[in-house]
Design goal:
Keywords: Membrane, Transmembrane, Transmembrane helix, Transport. It holds the Pfam family MFS_1. It is found in: Membrane. It is a multi-pass membrane protein. This protein has one domain (about 10-440): Growth Hormone, Chain: A (Up-down Bundle), CATH 1.20.1250.20. It is about 75% helix and about 0% strand. The chain has helices spanning about 10-20, 20-40, 50-55, 55-75, 85-100, 105-135, 140-170, 180-205, 215-225, 225-240, 245-275, 285-315, 320-340, 345-360, 365-370, 380-385, 390-410, 415-430, 440. Helix 2 packs antiparallel against helix 6 (about 105-135), helix 2 (about 20-40) packs across helix 11 (about 245-275) and helix 17 (about 390-410) packs across helix 18 (about 415-430). The N and C termini lie close together (about 10 Å).
Length: about 450
């Protein structure tokens, strides 16, 4: 564990401002996670082929995240700071990709849009994680990551409901076969505006601390400059990661396998199992798909309220991060599994409310634990490397892991993908028991 740095405690609104860009990032992720499978199905993709269409996104993240983290650790400009340049360029490319994604006329175009969108969001996202560790003392890091989660929850709820809202105000929700409905196009356009403007808000309202010893910082950068030295340094950090990070990585692996399964299969699973709708050009299917977005919004709304509770608690008392995370994952696992057993659509709100508890914890507790166990000078690269434990399970899932596992363990019905997701979250919760370092599991 790192020694507490001599950093001032920040107010709620200072932490809010430095995290506000996550609202836009989550607009991008929520629209991507809630509606890209709908776009793929509309363009003719079979259900079992959907995970493969998602594979470019995690593959890109596997490469982009450590590199961006490494570069941001070694960036400093008196005016623009360390992390903020990455916020800006990621926002520009994310905005463009998000706007044009629903105008795809072929599967390869939609998959390409997803690839560009995910890569661009990652350019902005990883430095946001590192910024919390840069700016906050260890005693405030759980609080800082929870505030991020609060903003993420708001973004998830609003963005997931945008196509439904567009339909309610009269925007067409159906189109010719193979054409994306206008309700989805409008939702993605609004998301693009929110993404750029919220990240710009953080850039304009947040200042960064300069390196403690600027001369030493520049000397270290000169010594490690060059492509080969950079790649060598990244691999050195990967193979030399702290033991705690490996244990947290195991928890992350099963957590993100579960959520990738949800993003890939929630629309076909719920529209087929609950609404009995399979024709993607029908009114019944498109209304059901809008409803899926509404239910996914519930997990964002719940994560927002759970994050509010955690923010209040962590601002007042020290918490056991490991136990909070373990029981939150158990709740999410139960929520996914219950989807198989319910018969009424309104019950999905209960299921996804439980999922939202897990989501709030996934976006805060692992990062708070990680930030207490790594060298502050390498926070960016380690945050990037840590996210390899997010993208690797997604790659495995996309390459057939989901299709193979749910059919092997449970049965042929696509709703069993949600049971698989729940089982994976419960395993993730149990993996927390391997983490025993009190300095990591408890607030500083």
């Amino acid at each position: 564990m790192q020694v507490e740095e001599n950093k001032p405690r920040l107010s709620f609104w200072q932490i809010w401002n430095m995290s506000f860009g996550f609202l836009g990032i989550q607009f991008g992720f929520a629209l991507q996670g809630g509606f890209m499978s709908r776009i793929f199905q509309t363009l003719g993709a079979e259900k079992d082929a959907i995970p493969m269409l998602w594979i470019a996104a995690p593959l890109t993240g596997l490469l982009v995240q450590p590199i961006v983290g490494y570069l941001s650790d070694r960036t400093w400009h008196p005016k623009f700071g360390r992390r903020r340049p990455f916020f800006f360029f990621g926002a520009v490319f994310s905005t463009i990709a998000l706007f044009f994604a629903p105008y795809s006329s072929a599967l390869w175009m939609a998959a390409g849009s997803l690839w560009i969108l995910d890569a661009s969001i990652n350019i902005s996202m990883e430095p946001f994680r590192a910024l919390v560790a840069d700016k906050l003392p260890d005693s405030q890091r759980s609080y800082g990551f929870v505030v991020q989660t609060l903003i993420i929850g708001i973004g998830t709820w609003i963005a997931s409901n945008l196509p439904w809202f567009m339909t309610q105000i009269g925007v067409p929700n159906t189109a010719e076969p193979g054409v994306i409905p206008d309700s989805v196009k409008f939702a993605f356009g609004i998301g693009a505006v929110v993404l750029f403007s919220s990240i710009l808000y953080t850039i304009l309202t947040t200042k960064e601390y300069p390196p403690e010893n600027l001369e030493e910082f520049e000397k270290e950068n000169q010594e490690s400059s060059g492509f080969l030295k950079g790649v060598t340094e990244i691999f050195k950090n990967i193979f030399g990661m702290p033991n705690v990070m490996l244990k947290l990585g195991l928890v992350q692996f099963f957590s993100w396998f579960a959520f990738f399964t949800m993003w890939s299969f929630a629309t076909p699973a719920i529209t087929e199992h609950i609404f009995k709708a399979t024709d993607t050009a029908s009114v019944a299917y498109n209304d059901a798909a809008d409803s899926v977005g509404n239910y996914l919004g519930t997990y964002g709304l719940t994560s927002m309220f759970f994050a509010l509770i955690l923010a209040f608690i962590t601002s007042k008392v020290k918490i056991n991060r490991k136990l909070v995370h373990m029981f939150s994952l158990f709740a999410g696992g139960a929520g996914f599994i219950l989807i198989y057993f319910i018969s009424e659509p309104w019950m999905l709100h209960i299921c996804f409310a439980l999922v939202g508890i897990a989501w709030a914890s996934i976006l805060s507790m692992p990062y708070a634990m990680l930030s207490s166990s790594v060298n502050p000078k390498q926070m960016g690269v380690y945050m990037g490397i840590f996210n390899m434990f997010i993208v690797i399970p997604q790659i495995i899932a996309a390459l057939g892991g989901i299709n193979y596992m749910y059919k092997l363990l449970f049965g042929e019905e696509v709703v069993f993908t949600m049971v698989l997701a729940g089982t994976s979250l419960i395993v993730a919760g149990l993996c927390n028991l391997f983490i025993t370092n009190k300095g990591v599991t408890h607030d500083g």
